[in-house]
Automatic annotation (TrEMBL), chains A, B:
Belongs to the class-II aminoacyl-tRNA synthetase family. ProS type 1 subfamily. PROSITE patterns: AA_TRNA_LIGASE_II. CDD domains: ProRS-INS, ProRS_anticodon_short, ProRS_core_prok. This is Proline--tRNA ligase. Keywords: Aminoacyl-tRNA synthetase, ATP-binding, Cytoplasm, Ligase, Nucleotide-binding, Protein biosynthesis. Residues 33-464 form the Aminoacyl-transfer RNA synthetases class-II family profile domain. Its EC number is 6.1.1.15. GO terms for molecular function: aminoacyl-tRNA deacylase activity; ATP binding; proline-tRNA ligase activity. It catalyses: tRNA(Pro) + L-proline + ATP = L-prolyl-tRNA(Pro) + AMP + diphosphate. InterPro entries: aa-tRNA-synt_IIb, aa-tRNA-synth_II, aa-tRNA-synth_II/BPL/LPL, Anticodon-bd, Anticodon-bd_dom_sf, Pro-tRNA-ligase_IIa, Pro-tRNA-synth_IIa_bac-type, Pro-tRNA-Synthase_IIa_type1. GO terms for cellular component: cytosol. The gene is proS. Homodimer.
Length: 569, 569
């Protein structure tokens, strides 16, 4: 592709609206443009990168025997009413009426549509297993769309659905998709990790997320290098590594703690470590029942765990005015002693002697609180996020923590959808049984963002070879080399995808643009070519340069490509 | 692909809901399934065929230098308000609010979005010409979705938009797209015709439709075999071939015509040809002004022409109760004489002596009416559809008429969108000028329907090789040949897309399914292979059979493929 015939509107400055690096660089590099909040145009170079990812996904799904279909974006309410999600799904499900006043929604996911299709068309166990998938736009009316493609409202997703006759079949399909996902992200040239995950709104019992590793990731992963255990910290059982000292219990003592509210402030004021302070948080369950959660000051509540403890009832944090009314003290001075509501104590408080709690009276705390004595909680449970110092729930070795971006999520659904939708088949024994289902998603457009988050430097994007929109940026720095450049362009085009900067621009502008859009190799015709007949090859990833004669150009490129693909550089 | 691992739910019976052959066969063949009115799932074989068409479209668009992008399906109202189409576009524009109560619509077309993109990103004539395109789902909330993919609400479209600095540039882009479309439909293996067309809701001055020729087409094409003129009959100027005889004018005579209402009934009753009878139709313009149109009984009103005559004001046919109130007679007895409203007479009535008109009194007509004497119309204009007997408006030779299905439509938009949206660039002379635009659509999913309408027989679909979901259906009729069949399957797969019917089914079932889904060649292992080592090849298109030894199988297939591609068979 010639730059003079391409549409690549790069920008010099970051856009004020872009908060994270991938959003900034995809805008600056001319990959995407905003149409409305969370809604984007993919420009030619962005579309090319997207297609690369899509093609890798498609190739591996096909290889796994999954069959590609296409389902509509506009879905009738009737199907969603059957599963109860018409009511249960939040406002992310964009609902509307057509001209005949029938209810429809924009598909955020397609369990209902696919289950309806399969229940009508598949009759017998002989037709199973069946895995169907599509790569298509989806719409989720996010309350706060942001970060560009990372949390967009309209986005491209690969969603697959498996149908099996029994649990054993589901296990096989799930394992097949797990391995397929590993191949997909490997083939994209990404560093990633599969982790055990929370099933959320899709449901089912077991799920794994595929995380692209990046410091800027929103998710925290708990990883055990000893046994290979890995989970999203939302799900990780918190097992304290610390052994509490057998310190004798001291008598409870009320102390004056004026104006110190946060656990850290209290700790500093009292001259104690933060771990010795507890915090008490008040939640309102189903808009009526207050519940208190007590945990160490250096720990954090895990709301996914709390949701399970609360039997999946809706809950939220209490507002300050509600707390004042309920307890008569401000947040910061709350404690479990004498609290007239259900109290959940985090497991890490078990056997922990002499900790600090709020006195439920402004400006006061108690020293030397002890679980079971100072207060008796209604429940002692694991309600916190695992954190450094905690142990692997599988093998007991210390856990590592790292950040990731969720790009894929696979679920064992079981009969969650098939039983309510009466999607059944005739099994070997002649009995009607509900399909055992799984579902498997990849945020295709999100992979593009995650790629950039993982692979960039101060000059721009650094695409892995596998999903780079072009492999080679051909840059000629001298008008007198025009003819030579044309020849090399034609030569390279037969083996590589080449973006040829044939503009009348200063070298600085050309290099800046090519660095920004992240093409793996820059083939440069400049001084060294004119003087010594040597073509310069710059490797975007590490800035290293190689020089080669024209007749060895392709050989040299092949060598560098190999190094890149096998990550030796 | 093995049938036992494929998802191809064929049906024995036509679905009651399917009115036209393509809808019937695409349902029966397991290509599509309905999700809601005008909304479909593409099943694996349907998706494959769709992809074939999409890939041909993409290859030719890329070859023309058009750049692929992807725009969202959900579009903000603001852009549509700028062009006035938020108000002007009918209910086919599905409008809705998001969770923040902002107005959006589902894109039925993308002129607004693309013009907004280009006005923000393209500054200079140096960046022109620019042709951008996408292949993506669209939504039009049709009042009466029907005929399966032919008039669906959600469908796949290729839409392209050209931006030029001047009219000359537009002419070039338009010509380029015209030729690209010719190549696309040729490469799809379809018989088609480009015709001059009505610009409709998209607007602009010049447009051409690309019509797949099929007896079942909804559109009528007027074609001149002498000079090559071709137009949609909506647009064809009607030039009467008939020369009226210089018959002396006779005196007007009121006759009793009890109970005869249609032109044909009146003609039969009076013993005159239908052409001698006129009909008078009453339209209501903008819900207030009645307008009468008078034309020959054997001619039909062309509402596209009428719309132009009425300066594009909204109009509809009057209801019977309105006619009774306005005129005091029932439809069937109406005539232009003494009518207290604007009367438009069709041009074909000029110089036509002694025709019959209704008397505006139930059960009565007049004989021997004459234009200019019996009544003086407010306007004499070409308001009818051209029909057999009419002459070519370009060369005067008699026109031929044929039926077609619109699959593509290209428009010269000029500055229709760019001027209202203030989409300008800096021209060579340093002046701001609006982009000169064109737009170019192909109904990708509709092409699939049109292909079936054009290519089928009583047994099912007959796909052109180029867009067939599979090239070869491999059918083994004997379990003892299983190993042989497997070998041939592997052999053929390296060159062709093969659907291998490896099911335990009766031969009849296998042949029926493969005929139905329209795969061009059936490679059959049966009696002749067992007895003489000869593989049978059946050509789906004509039912002819060839026999070949295994070692010449591919050679034979190649020969037949050539014959098919060059339409020698």
């Amino acid at each position: 592709m010639r730059m003079t015939r391409y549409f690549l509107p790069t920008l010099r400055e970051d856009q004020a609206s872009a908060e994270i690096i991938s959003h900034k660089l995809l805008l600056r590099g001319g990959f995407i443009r905003k149409v409305a909040s969370g809604i984007y145009n993919f420009l030619p170079i962005g579309f090319r990168a997207l297609k690369k990812i899509e093609n890798i996904v498609r190739a591996e799904m096909d290889r796994a025997g999954a069959l590609e279909i296409l389902m509509p974006m506009v879905q009738p309410a009737e199907l969603w009413m059957e599963t109860g999600r018409w009511q249960a799904y939040g406002k992310e499900l964009l609902r509307f009426k057509d001209r005949k006043e029938h209810d429809f929604c924009l598909g955020p996911t397609h369990e209902e549509v696919i289950t309806d299709l399969v229940r009508k068309e598949v009759r017998s166990y002989r037709d199973l297993p069946l895995i169907l998938y599509q790569i298509a736009p989806k719409f989720r009316d996010e309350i706060r769309p942001r970060f560009g493609l990372m949390r967009a409202r309209e986005f491209i997703m690969k969603d697959a659905y498996s149908f099996d006759a029994d649990e054993e079949g589901l296990e096989k399909s799930y394992q097949l998709m797990y391995e397929t996902y590993e191949r997909i992200f490997k083939n994209c040239g990404l560093k990633f990790r599969a982790v055990e995950a929370h099933t959320g709104a899709i449901g089912g019992d077991v799920s794994h997320e595929f995380m692209v590793l990046a410091e800027t990731g929103e998710d925290t992963l708990a990883i055990c290098s000893a046994c290979g255990y890995a989970s999203n910290v939302e799900l990780t059982p918190a097992i304290l590594g610390e052994k509490y000292q057998g310190e004798p219990k001291k008598p409870l003592e009320k102390v004056y703690t004026p104006g110190v509210r946060s656990a850290k402030d209290v700790a500093d004021y009292l001259g104690l470590p933060v771990s010795k302070i507890t915090k008490t948080l008040i939640y309102i369950v189903e808009e009526k029942e207050p519940v208190a959660v007590v945990l160490r000051g250096d720990h954090e509540v895990n709301e996914v765990k709390l949701e399970k403890i609360l039997s999946f009832r809706a809950f939220r944090m209490a507002r300050e005015d509600e707390i004042l009314k309920l307890i008569g003290a401000h947040p910061g001075f709350l404690g479990p002693k004498g609290l007239k509501m259900k109290v959940i104590a985090d497991k890490a408080l078990e056997g922990y002697p002499n900790f600090v709690i709020g006195a439920n009276e402004d400006e006061y705390h108690y020293l030397n609180a002890n679980l079971g004595e100072t207060f008796v909680p209604d429940l002692i449970a694991d309600v916190r996020k695992a954190c450094p110092g905690d142990l692997c729930p599988r093998c007991g070795a210390p856990l590592d923590f790292t950040k990731g971006i969720e790009v894929g999520h696979i679920f064992k659904l079981g009969t969650k959808y098939s039983s309510v939708m009466k999607a059944t088949f005739l099994d070997k024994d002649g009995k009607e049984k509900p399909f055992i289902m799984g579902c498997y998603g990849i945020g295709v457009s999100r992979v593009l963002s995650a790629t950039v988050e993982q692979n960039h430097d101060e000059n721009g994007i650094i695409f892995p070879w596998q999903i780079a929109p072009f492999h080679i940026a051909l840059i000629s720095l001298d008008k007198t080399l025009k003819e030579e450049a044309e020849k090399i362009y034609h030569k390279l085009q037969s083996h590589y995808e080449v973006l040829f900067d044939d503009r009348d621009e200063r070298p600085g502008v050309k290099f800046k643009d090519m660095d920004l859009v992240g093409i793996p190799l820059q083939v440069i015709l400049g001084k060294s070519y004119k003087e010594k007949g040597e073509i310069e090859i710059k490797i975007r990833k590490n800035g290293k340069r190689a020089y080669t004669k024209l007749d060895q150009l392709e050989e040299t490129i092949e060598k560098i490509k190999e190094e890149l693909l096998f990550e030796r550089i």
